[in-house]
Amino acid sequence: MSFNGVGVALVTPFNADKRIDFEALKNLVDFTIEGGVDFLVALGTTAETPTLSTEEKLAVLNCIIEHNNKRKPVVLGLGSNSTLDVLDGLKLYPMEQVDGILSVVPYYNKPSQEGLFQHFSAIATATDKPIILYNVPGRTVTNMLPETTIRLAKAHKNIVAIKEASGNMAQCMELVQQAPEGFAVLSGDDNLIVPQVAIGFKGVISVAANSFPRYFCKMVHDCLSGNFDAGRQLHYKLLKGIDLLFAEGNPCGVKYVLYKNGIIRNELRLPLIPASDKLAAEFDAYLAQL
User: In this structure, are residues 63 and 22 in contact, taking their beta carbons and an 8 Å threshold?
Assistant: First the structure.
């Protein structure tokens, strides 16, 4: 299984009482698939997973799997700052129904590079599912260095990709240059995907693909096919919108845009809150011209 192109990190819609809105989640799956995404990512950071109970996570995953009905590959977000928790998750979730795992660098406890290697090695040994590593030092504090990523890719055949969200283009180029054959470097920074495809990235796991799937997917697919002129035009068309998505934290902006599109309610769980009046006004102006 290769995870190239556009993966969408699906949000979790809520009703006014903060319970999960499963009908809206089904609408979102349809909206993103019709917009051109290549695979779905369930229970990533954008899904507000830290605020979901174990039972809710299972319900969200099952809803996505059932409604997707094998139209697109499904990747499960499964990470923790405890290796044992991830290994327990492999027994808890319906792994036979997912196509891969997205596993984030352990957060808060700041492991060493050798600790990261042993953490992901333990996961890779415990499952035969394809694994996408996720490096996002802005959230985890720890930056997984390219040498650790490449060491893991060479040591375990089921470690097939990394979602690289360091924003460090020198580090990105080092990953691409050293990656073994068949290992995909994917973007975790929506505003950088065009130049990252130019240096050898194979795709993106995107937040913006929730909000602007048709434009965003076309932009990435144009670039992957070598049509950078068309991709660059869409990049600059979307750049302001992508910046607004993250202006007050993720998925605050995404949920506002989806609300304006009639896909979901504008509801988040604390400690996250909806877009401010100022941000909402900026979005309204941007969406009107888009």
Answer: yes
Interval 52-72 mean pLDDT = 98
Residue 110 lies in a domain: yes
Q: How many CB atoms are located within 10 Å of the residue 5 CB?
A: 18
Kindly report the CATH number assigned to the domain that includes residue 147: 3.20.20.70
- Residue 2's pLDDT is 78
pTM of the model: 0.96
| Residue 59, token pair as written in the block | 């319900």
Which residues are within 8 A (CB) of 18 and not within 5 positions of it... i.e. 6 or more apart?
267, 269
pLDDT in tens, 126-143: 999 999 999 999 999 999
Q: How far apart are CA 53 and CA 279, in angstroms?
A: 30
> How many domains, the chain?
1
Assess if residue 117 is contained within a domain: yes
**pLDDT over 80 (residue 1):** no
Domain span holding position 90:
5-227
Tell me how far the alpha carbon of residue 122 is from its chain's centroid. 22
Hey, which residues are catalytic here?
A: 134, 163
User: Which residues contact residue 194 at a Cβ distance below 8 angstroms, ignoring those fewer than 6 apart?
Assistant: 219, 223, 228, 231, 232, 235
Q: Tell how strand 39-42 and strand 5-9 pair up.
A: parallel
